[in-house]
What does this fold into?
Amino acid sequence: MNNRFEWQKRYNIGVDFIDKEHQKLFSIMNKLFEYGENDAKTQWICQEGIKYFKGHAMQHFAEEEMYMASLHYEGYDMHRRLHDSFRKQTLPALEKELNESGYSPDAIKHFLGVCAGWLIGHTLTEDRAITGQTTSKWENLLPQEQMNMVSNTIIQLLYELFQLNARVISETYGGEKFGKGLYYRLVYSSKEGKEWEVILIFEEKLLLSTMGKMMGEESDKVNVMLVNATRYTARQFVDRIRIHYPSIANYEIKDENLLTYEQFQRIFGKQQPQCSLLFDTGEGYFAYCDRSPHYLQGDVGTSLKSDNATAEIKKYLENNQTSQKKKILVVDDSSVMRQAMQELLGSDYEVSEVSSGVAALQNIALNRPDLILLDYEMPVCDGGQVLEMIRSEKNMSDIPVIFLTGRGDPESIKKVMSLKPAGYLLKNLKPEDIKANIDGFLRRQEEAKSRQTEPKKKILVVDDSEVMRRAMQELLGNDYEVSEVSSGVAAIQSIALNRPNLILLDYEMPVCDGGQVLEMIRSEKNMSDIPVIFLTGRGDAESIKKVMSLKPAGYLLKNLKPEDIKANIDGFLRRQKS
It folds into this structure.
């Protein structure tokens, strides 16, 4: 999935225990992302990781709520409602999906996408609101009774139309990306000019398994006919929901659009909806968002009319078949420039666009790009500051950044290049020259990537001696990815979340000795094949015989010269590879 985000100082809200727990949650989520990228991991390992994440989240919510109550925080009730939605609905529903699907790739993707998006959004908005650094984005949320009415109506409609037994995942869906989807927007208006907007989000596999089957479609891709059928069904769907809103019963449809995910994000970011629900239908995810957007203009795609619908839907579907394309993120406060780059690059790349540095970081966390095109001159947070923030994130820092600048004088170029970006492009270059530069850069990146050596092998050092662990870290850290723990229980947890290629195991440890740890590892079917080399301080014949009776992959005496220990490990891993 190539998604990473790490803690940095700007996320701090200024309350020490809350900041530390946020940092821990970020770290756990990154471990889960690593699991999602490794098909060799086991269901049990995923269960343990999620259990670990859930335990920390629940404890953190309770402590944060106690802190808010002690301050008499005026947003306490709404903040707790957001927590309740996540802990009582979102997490249990996601866990249920994982179990029912046997931890399928789609279920894992859903879990990681929804949790990561929620964690980022909640930390940067709602938690910072506690200390007055921002304001809550959920101030206009419908009362719980009305929210229940809408969600129950949607569940009933999904059953009546498609015989789906849906369940609510979240009552405060924050716009998280949960898979490839169709974003459909409807705007209704009154004679007085008031507006009501609805956005329906269908995961593609949901459309294929419902509308597709009803129409006898056998394709595994969404086509024009399927989208048109979905549009008309969606209108009927929304009309049934409008019955519960007497104040908008007489509104008439004014506009409809198909949105890209980036357009949806921009609309969503201006004002949170009054109702925002996420459902698991059993066949895919579905989201329903509504609000009154009368002040929003210019952030949506072409209006769908009878004379252009087919052509626009074809264009929309073509633009969204981008799963194999390189990803480019354009960061520029000018909508004209963003649109120009979208038109210039959109045919060959998957282009996302945002207007600020903060939006860029959120986009990178959930949809990591292969290249960032960054405007140097932006208000509030300029290109240099955005680049600094990207580099401060350990797992974003390797994303290449090319500056876009409108100034070509030597002094300005010198200032830009002093920040050591991957390059810079003048905005007044001919479009074909800009594209040629980007094409060439990404081609060279791909060639360099193909020449790179394979990732470092992972070694886990298990030893109750901090001195020994540090010595092994210094000895092996340059050539291997070395993790270290001080006990057998910690070793099992570490293996579950970060499976090593080799375990160096101290034979003599208190509580649970090396022999017992080896027995636990071998008892787990999907750990039993990890080679274990014992580290022992005793070299007499009787001790060696005792160690080798357990049939480890080998043993090393701790009093060997460091270079001899490393030579033995290098040789062992080299033989393992062959």
About this structure: Residues 293-299 have pLDDT under 50 and may be disordered.
